[in-house]
Amino acid sequence: MFGTRVEQLSDLEAAYRAFANTIRGLSPETLLRSLGDWTPRDIVAHFIGWNRITLVGCAELRERAEPFYFYDGTNDYRVVNAGFLRRYPSREPGELLAEMAATMQALVSYLTTVPDAEWDADTGIVHYRSGPATPARCVDSLIRDYRKHRDEILAAPVG
């Protein structure tokens, strides 16, 4: 269903790098400009948090436990994301990017330890959108999220 662990990790790192480079290219004013519900700064805080909880969620799945944040899935993770905006309030691009890099490094380091046999294994935990919840699916969601939010930022009107 998803690529191999190696392929997905390569895709994750590429999506992360493209997003981070996009953020680096923003002026301080643009970093704080509204995109509707949030700003690019807020999206970086969102990814700092999601890198962290994806690591925890994958570890929980490997233990055959439902990831703690699934409760908020049908709410589009609004409660979880609001918590990240409060937890990571910095408006300093360098600080935000450093924290996002550190959490991505921790996530990728952990994911490289997941055996191939467990990467896409059905543990009996069902994703809120149906189907098995697996580390591969968690990583796929994060890849798509990095790409979607980068596109959202790039599509925003300038000025």
Q: What is the secondary structure topology, with strand pairs?
A:
Layout: H1 5-24, H2 28-31, H3 40-62, H4 78-87, H5 93-111, H6 116-119, H7 135-155
Helix pairs in contact: 1-5, 1-7, 3-4, 3-5, 3-7
Report on this model:
The protein is mainly alpha-helical and 159 residues long. 64% of the residues lie in helices and 0% in strands. It contains 7 helices and no strands. Helix 1 runs antiparallel to helix 5 (93-111), helix 3 runs parallel beside helix 5 (93-111) and helix 3 runs antiparallel to helix 7 (135-155). The radius of gyration is 16 Å and the shape is globular. The mean pLDDT is 95.
Keyphrases for this structure?
globular; 64% helix; mainly alpha
Relative helix content: 55-70%
Shape assignment: globular
Biggest beta sheet summary:
none
Number of helices: 7
Distance between the termini: 42 Å
Gyration radius, in Å: 16 Å
- Per DSSP E runs of 2 or more residues, the count of β-strands stands at 0
Q: What is the average of the pLDDT values?
A: 95
Q: Determine the structural class based on helices, strands and strand pairing.
A: mainly alpha
Taken as a percent bin, the fraction of beta residues is: under 5%
Enumerate the spans where pLDDT stays under 50 for 5 or more consecutive residues: none
SSE pattern, N- to C-terminal:
HHHHHHH
Concise summary:
The protein has helices at residues 5-24, 28-31, 40-62, 78-87, 93-111, 116-119, 135-155.
